[in-house]
Amino acid sequence: xxxxxxxxxxxxxxxxxxxxxxxxxxxxxxxxxxxxxxxxxxxxxxxxxxxxxxxxxxxxxxxxxxxxxxxxxxxxxxxxxxxxxxxxxxxxxxxxxxxxxxxxxxxxxxxxxxxxxxxxxxxxx
Length: 125
Fold this sequence. Notes:
By secondary structure, the chain is an alpha+beta fold.
């Protein structure tokens, strides 16, 4: 009787281990492969670490150069000039959506007026 209990306990531990391994394969943390290569490149001091980071990025859209930085005041003025707004007009609301980033710039509810004196103006959120 003791041997049967021992075999059942060993089988339970084995099935539990298999279940845990499959759980880790499905839902465990994903390994980050790029961090190892970047650490190796920057530690060697060859200066190719920045190039390795740039190679992982998607291609830039036309009109944007690799040398421009986001903190540049000239870069912000050129992006403001090429900015386009998409207007979505329904029976409930009016929305202005920026094509760069998909940011909602304006949202007005048509059925809810600002005040009783201005019933034609929709409430802007």
